[in-house]
From TrEMBL:
Belongs to the LacAB/RpiB family. GO terms for molecular function: ribose-5-phosphate isomerase activity. Keywords: Isomerase. This is Ribose 5-phosphate isomerase B. GO terms for biological process: D-allose catabolic process; pentose-phosphate shunt, non-oxidative branch. The keyword ATP-binding does not apply. PANTHER family: DNA DAMAGE-REPAIR_TOLERATION PROTEIN DRT102, RIBOSE-5-PHOSPHATE ISOMERASE B.
Amino acid sequence: MATVYIGSDHAGLELKAALVKRLSEKGHDVHDLGPATTESCDYPVYAKGVCGKVLADAGNATPGDEPASFGILVCGTGIGMSMTANHIPGIRAALCGCEFQARATRQHNNANVLCLGERVTGQGVALDIAELFLNTAFEGGRHLRRINQIEG
Ligand code: RB5
């Protein structure tokens, strides 16, 4: 089971709550880093908070190592969260709208952060995406050569 840090903005709060419930029920160690209310707030604050936890757990890990923990970020579109997260060295954030992307980004990109758009992706699909993301391993091989070039 995975350690998961999850954050949102006001536009992702409802899906965040559903993710916390589902993933906790499945046995994952889920840490909700906020926000707690639907009061308007700024997604970069929560993206940086979640990514900071993922990086702290990663320590001196290299891109090919299986992540020690994962982040999940939810905003209205998922785009602002993914833009912010992918500015942070060591974070490989994937905005996913279907299970194919969720599986492939773990197998091929070793993504350590999943981004979701509450206003874009239905809740049932989003919950399945998150479970698949957490349960899929990196394949390494040629994919390691490629992810090593992202920040190279
Ligand atoms: C909030 O209105 C919205 O802009 C935000 O949740 C997100 O979609 C930004 O990328």
